[in-house]
Amino acid sequence: MVASTVRKAYVPRRSPWWWTKNPRYFLFQVRELSGAFVVAYAFLVLWQLWALRGGQDAYDAFLQVWYSRPIVVLNVVILAFAVLHSVTWFSLTAKVPLIRVRGRPPPGAVVIGANVVVWIVLSFLVVKVLYGGF
Amino acid sequence: MAGARIDRLTPMVWGIFSLGGFVIAFLLPVFIVMNSLAYPFHLVPFESVGYTGALSWLRGGASAGVLGTSLGGLGGWLSKLFLVVVIGGALFHGLHRLKYVLYDAGLHRAKKILDPIVYGIAGAGTVAAVFLAFSFP
Looking at A30-39, B14-23, B35-44, B56-65, which range is the least confident one? Predict the structure, then answer.
């Protein structure tokens, strides 16, 4: 026979504002939130493509909104979150020993530095090759 | 063991999350600058972002000058592929992250419903990006 026990389960209580208590938690939550902004931008671009497909008038109307102040401000905010994602992602890759040099993972600073170099080179290539420069 | 089910899906979505993380870490900031902020901050003239300019960009017009005549035709594919990769990467990466934010907010009990919704939106958005981008001649 299985003895029935009365047990009082421990239910941890957590304030909805737990992430404001510590700068590390705050950065974590803000970083996770960058996902929302990144997704929002993907949908904005889909909307842009849809408008472009609609022809000259539809795209002109779209650009009126696209370059209005609130949307430009929104895009600056999205850019800030995108850069936060890049920086935190690069420091994250330093924690994952994907490659080993003489049996040891390379120092974090080297991995982050290499990522930043690739980031700069790719950004430059996008501007230069895809957009034909300024 | 006949009864053991191997979870192949979870590693796969984490893999796509990671791939998307790299794609948008490297490519999204420069794309936002060029696509949304270059004109308001007076980096490019209106001609390059207006209807004709945007169409020309999508067809590889902007890159033709750099790639030369022999590779000029590649430009259109490059722009469209770029859009699909950035949109798809952003959707799969961002929505995966949001899913865990929602789990943290107490929705982990709704995993069975939440997972198909989240990856369904990401998949549908990526398919939409393919169709929209490649619908331009």
Answer: B56-65
The alpha-carbon gap from A11 to the nearest alpha carbon of chain B, in Å, equals: 13
- CB B62 within 8 Å of CB B4: no
pTM for this entry: 0.86
3-state SS assignment for residue A101: strand
Residues of B with Cβ-Cβ distance to A50 under 8 angstroms:
132
Taking CA–CA distances from B39, the nearest residue in chain A reads A67
- Contact status, residue A119 vs residue A86, Cβ threshold 8 Å: yes
* Closest C-alpha among B84, B86, B110 to residue B99: B110
Cβ-defined contact of A83 to B29 (cutoff 8 Å): yes
Going from the C-alpha of B90 to that of each of A77, B26, B49, the distances in angstroms are 16, 11, 23
What is the CA angle A40-B16-B30, rounded to 5?
50
- Neighbour tally for A101: CB within 10 Å: 9
> To the nearest whole number, what is the mean pLDDT of chain A?
88
Cβ contact, residue pair A35, B44, below 8 Å: no
The secondary structure of A65-88 as a DSSP string is HHTSHHHHHHHHHHHHHHHHHHHH
Residue whose entry in the numeric block shows the structure tokens 């209580």: A13
